[in-house]
């Protein structure tokens, strides 16, 4: 008896996704969203940034003229579209497995006058990566502006997510003597509005000096495999009303508190080595 089997097809190739995240440690998708989507995101971030700057401790300094702000999913239009984008879902499922969880949403703003950051990881490599040789978290980035070379592009040293950190300060900051290794490999990223990228936050990277008169705000979405525990550095919150309206498959993806009213986030993810004095 013959059985008619259909060859399974996938919109996004898991081997390509795994190859990129385990190889260079970064992957992008051009035109994932419309320019209008990125523009609205930029408008929402501008409001949130202004509010955060007024609150003591509302924005974390990440170097001169540079901040990070953790936000609430419902503070931005488009959270659902972002979190349920087929590419975002495919990348998360492929690299982190079927039980991945969203643990962080925030944004970085390198302003005019921001300087080169030290090369760094966003947190120390966990045992799962160091000994288990597996990535258990990802950071998605969505630019809200077209990035030009003078706007302090994000710079990354592909393949360095596997570098031994025993000589790094706080297991995150390689000594200056190692910089030639990162500089030789460095790639500057110049995404346009609507593009999205994903990286391991362990791939050594830095924000570069912004010599333009424009800020370069970029959204960050943090996603974990079970057991990665990055949620401990964050405080993802949604209101009951927002949660109830979410698609069912997104509800189970949020590692968050469900609250009656949103609480002000006490910014937790400070990276001491990036402060370099006042932001
Ligand atoms: O400038 C960027 O896009 C990233 C900045 C960064 O790596 C950080 O503040 O940890």
Automatic annotation (TrEMBL):
Example GO molecular function: dioxygenase activity
Pfam families found in the cross-reference section: PhyH
Family matches, as InterPro entries: Fungal_Metabolite_Diox (IPR051961), Phytyl_CoA_dOase-like (IPR008775)
Keywords, ordered alphabetically: Dioxygenase, Oxidoreductase
Keyword Disulfide bond: no
UniProt superkingdom: Bacteria
Protein name per its UniProtKB record: Phytanoyl-CoA dioxygenase family protein
Organism: Paenibacillus gansuensis
């Amino acid at each position: 008896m013959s059985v008619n089997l259909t060859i399974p097809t996938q919109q996004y190739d898991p081997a390509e996704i795994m190859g990129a995240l385990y190889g260079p440690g970064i992957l992008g998708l051009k035109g994932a969203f419309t320019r209008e989507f990125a523009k609205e995101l930029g408008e929402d971030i501008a409001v949130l940034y202004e509010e955060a700057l007024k609150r003591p401790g509302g924005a974390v300094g990440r170097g001169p003229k540079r901040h990070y702000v953790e936000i609430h999913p419902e503070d931005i239009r488009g959270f659902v579209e972002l979190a349920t984008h087929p590419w975002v879902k495919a990348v998360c499922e492929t690299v982190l497995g079927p039980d991945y969880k969203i643990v962080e949403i925030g944004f970085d703003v390198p302003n005019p006058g921001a300087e080169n950051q030290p090369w760094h990881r966003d947190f120390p490599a966990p045992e799962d990566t160091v000994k288990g040789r597996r990535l258990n978290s990802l950071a998605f980035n969505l630019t809200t502006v077209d990035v030009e070379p003078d706007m302090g592009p994000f710079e990354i040293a592909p393949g360095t997510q596997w570098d031994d950190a025993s000589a790094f300060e706080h297991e995150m900051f390689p000594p200056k003597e190692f910089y030639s290794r990162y500089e030789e490999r460095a790639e500057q990223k110049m995404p346009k509005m609507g593009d999205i990228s994903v990286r391991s936050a362990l791939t050594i990277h830095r924000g570069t000096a912004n010599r333009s008169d424009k800020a370069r705000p970029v959204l960050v979405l943090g996603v974990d495999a079970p057991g990665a525990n990055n949620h401990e550095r964050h405080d993802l919150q949604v209101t009951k009303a927002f949660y109830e309206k979410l698609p069912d498959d997104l509800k189970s993806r949020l590692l968050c508190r469900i609250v009656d009213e949103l609480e002000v986030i006490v910014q937790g993810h400070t990276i001491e080595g990036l402060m370099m004095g006042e932001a």
